[in-house]
Amino acid sequence: MRKLFTLVLGACWGLAGLHAQQSAQYTLHMLSPYYWNSGAAAIDQDLSLTASVRQQWGGLPGAPMSQFALLQVPLPQFRAAFGVKFENDELGAQRNSNLMATYNYQLELGSGILGLGASAGFTQYGLDGSQLRTPGGAYQDILINHNDDILSAGAMSGLAPTFDLGAYYQSEKWSFGVAMRNLTSASIQLSEFELQTTRTVFFNGQTSFPLGTSFLIQPSVLVRTDLTQIQTDVGLLIRYNDNIFGGASFRGYNSNSIDALGLIAGAKLNEKLSIAYAYDLVLSPLREVSNGSHELMVHYRIQQGTKSRKPKIIYNPRLL
Question: Which CATH number does the domain housing residue 256 bear?
């Protein structure tokens, strides 16, 4: 009963606040900055594909399931980059899907590159009323009657445009950025009521420094806020010979926000393919009904970029 109550409470939360669910959270945030910041698209000048799947709070019915896919295409001749990102996020009876295209302009600034990006696309929000139960409802066999004027017994969905902005700076040792998702906080019409997407601001910082000749230490921090609540992720990765890495991430900053401790491991399988895995130890009260969270990310580099942003010169032998 406790698990069922948690499912119903989580699924109804979005209705109570009349807001679509917030952006999904990922423990491996430091490995895919383009996911949350449009300015980071192809900032390393690599043509690449990234895919990630996350099962949160395993063992808890209706727990979040999230997936995303990223395509990043450098356009060095225009000092720019193009990207496409798709995300699907499920929580109980709710489903939120996004498809967006990105363009960013990249400037050489000091010893690094500053990317200024914008994304535009659509977000679709769906709600399966058959999975919900209300205190005054009548439920017998296949009969579903919520006794609620606005809550349907079937599936509902709505579509709205969405826009993101981001600025991201990356050098050999540092990276930091600020981004805003759901810039316009668009309204989504579902049957008899409206939901609003949640405007969310992200701040990040990351650095790296060598430890001896074989190890590289990479601490990072990600702060996200909907201008009402704040959540922080502090991580630390240790890379060995740029092939194998491991570390941890801690989510939360006080007794009300502490959520999980993530254990991270990954490897570069070859020059193009790398893989990473994270397991979250739940530290919030949900640890009593959950056996942890799992996250897997695969990154495939189709073509490696060059350090120089200027195209190579090809000499015509006839001119020699």
Answer: 2.40.160.40
- 174 within a domain of the structure (yes/no): yes
> What whole-number distance in Å separates Cα of residue 10 and Cα of residue 20?
12
**Range with lowest mean pLDDT among 114-118, 125-129, 179-183:** 125-129
Say if CB 245 and CB 239 are below 8 A apart.
yes
Whether the CB-CB separation of 97 and 124 falls below 8 Å is answered with yes
Domain tally, the chain: 1
List, for residues 274-309, the tens digit of each pLDDT value.
999 999 999 999 888 888 999 999 999 998 876 555
Task: Identify which of 206, 159, 189, 196 has the alpha carbon closest to the alpha carbon of residue 36.
Answer: 206
Q: Which domain holds residue 209?
A: 2-270+277-304
How far apart (Å, rounded) are the C-alpha atoms in residues 51 and 193?
Answer: 34
Q: Are 279 and 291 in contact (CB under 8 A)?
A: no
With CA atoms as reference, report the closest residue to 59 among 131, 111, 6: 6
Q: Is the pLDDT of residue 46 over 60?
A: yes
Residue 128 has pLDDT above 90, yes or no: no
Q: What are the structure tokens assigned to 149, written together?
A: 């004027």
